[in-house]
Amino acid sequence: MVGKLWGGRFKSGTDKIVDNFNASIHFDKRLYKEDIEGNMAYCRGLAKQGIISEGDAATILNALKDICGEIEGGDFAFDETLEDIHTHIEKALIEKIGPLGETIHAGRSRNDQIALDTRLYVKNSAIKIINLIRDFQLSLIGLAEKNQDLIMPGYTHLQRAQPVLLAHHLLAYYEMLKRDTERYEEALRRTNVLPLGSAALAGTTFNIDREFLSRELKLENLTANSMDAVSDRDYVLEFIFASALLMMHLSRLCEELIIWSTQEFGFIEISDAFATGSSIMPQKKNPDIPELIRGKTGRVYGNLISLLTTMKGLPLTYNKDMQEDKEPLFDTVDTVEKSVTIFSRLLEEIDFKRERLIEATEKGYLVATDLADYLVSKGMTFRKAHHLVGDMILSAKKKKKELHQLDLSEMIRFSTLIEGDVYGWLDPMSCIERRNIEGGTGPEMVKKALSKAKEELRS
Ligand code: ARG
Question: N or C: which end of the chain has fewer CB within 10 A?
Fold first, then answer.
């Protein structure tokens, strides 16, 4: 059969509808660089082992370079009857240099070839995303430093709980993203492995130097079992999982920004450049960007579930089902790269509303725990103090007062342990200052955390 690499045992051509359904070229052309890189290394490997001559290798390498240039210059014709990127590049090679181009596939299968291409692609993408996360963390730290003395309510159950430093709140996300980076790095360790030499499934009969190939391709290990090598997509799944978790973290911060930008909260204003309006309501300024990032998180979760499901019923070794790994992978890369990039920019332009944050910190009995701690410092048990402060809150509420607005005479009615120093104690900033414990919101600790974060990002 003309055109097909595998046409030999076929008497008639494939139906047009089959060519279309079977083809992956419309998405896997995205792997052209990795495929050419793999081809070049493999070609050098064949020459090193004397399977092809050095002169022939040089001709092949030159032709591959030209093909790369043609693809990048838009001068390359893609054709779905040629199925995938591997076939396209091999065919182009044969067209350019004749039968010599037919030598490159000795000892190799598209099964270990696609395994190599996706590994290289996941590797490059993970490195790129790790760098984008770093930029994002720098924006977070910049925002925290710009607002270092700002206090705000910390929440549990979305109810005002205790005063915290805004920087402490922001640095919580620094920690989440630090774990995300670690997860990508961990996934990279298992991605940087060379499958070449596995051929279709059983290993090649050619004397291929796998160590040489892995050095050429800057991979760190060799796959240990050829059957596992051609049927493993764990590294793609781990990459998508790391991405799903990263998106979840971004989405949680988006949710907070959306809430904080409401009139009800009024804690922040998103800059005009990163907000949008309404086609009917002239007063509106909508937080579309955080909403979209929150929304896109669902796509990445979907990609993870999609590929997990594709893989779950597959017998060893390669099955065509596995071609379905690419679109979820590519979509994940696009979504994560775009989301992290735009989010870093948006962060840099957030304006925190100092007055509103202070006002919110002073209302809602956020210092109640500290009042109980005060009583404990004067000798009361914590449980008793908790109960007593509860009573005080009920009484203060009736008078429409906050705790610090009660007169000393009103306070003493609850406990004679309370003295004039209670007012200083209940100042939100002093509540924060008392929490100078490792990992707490105390200003000393937050300062330390900020410089530790900057140090980590430098290294
Ligand atoms: N396009 C295929 C994929 O992405 C490449 C491997 C094809 N191998 C095969 N034996 N048909 O999975």
Answer: C
Residue 184 CA to ligand 1 centre (angstroms): 26
The CA distance from 69 to 72, in Å, is 5
Number of H helices and E strands in the chain, helices first, is 19, 6
278 is catalytic: yes
Q: Find how far residue 422's CA is from the centre of its chain.
A: 46
How far is residue 234's CA from residue 241's CA, in Å, rounded to a whole number?
10
Ligand 1 neighbourhood includes 335 CB (under 6 angstroms): no
Among protein residues, the one whose CA lies closest to atom 12 of ligand 1: 323
> Looking at ligand 1, which residue's alpha carbon is closest to its atom 11?
320
Rounded Cα gap, residues 259 and 203, in angstroms: 57
C-alpha span between 192 and 218 (Å, rounded) = 8
Torsion angle of C-alpha atoms 116, 120, 121, 122, degrees rounded to 10: 100
pLDDT category of residue 3 using cuts at 50, 70 and 90: low
Give me the count of residues in the chain: 459
Q: Please check whether residue 101 lies inside any domain of the structure.
A: yes
Tokens of 147: 């607002």
322 pocket-lining for ligand 1 (C-beta < 6 Å): yes
Of the listed 278, 377, 387, 451, which one is catalytic?
Answer: 278
Q: Domain for residue 157, yes or no? A: no
Range(s) of the domain holding residue 240 = 111-149+180-206+220-352
pLDDT tens for each residue of 186-244: 999 999 999 999 999 999 999 999 999 999 999 999 999 999 999 999 999 999 999 99
In the chain, the number of structural domains is 3
pTM listed for this prediction: 0.95
Spatial contact of 163 and 154, defined as CB atoms under 8 Å apart: yes
The CB of 323 under 6 Å from ligand 1? The reply is yes
Do residue 36 and residue 138 come from a single domain?
no
Active site residue 157: yes
Distance (Å) from CA 395 to ligand 1 centroid: 73
Q: What is the mean pLDDT of the chain?
A: 96
* 159: β partners: 156
Ligand 1 pocket member 445 (CB < 6 A) = no
How far is residue 50's CA from residue 438's CA, in Å, rounded to a whole number? 62
Give the pLDDT mean for 83-110: 96
- Of 244, 263, 267, which Cα lies nearest the Cα of 160? 267
Ligand 1: residue whose CA is nearest its atom 2: 323
88 lines ligand 1 (CB under 6 A): no
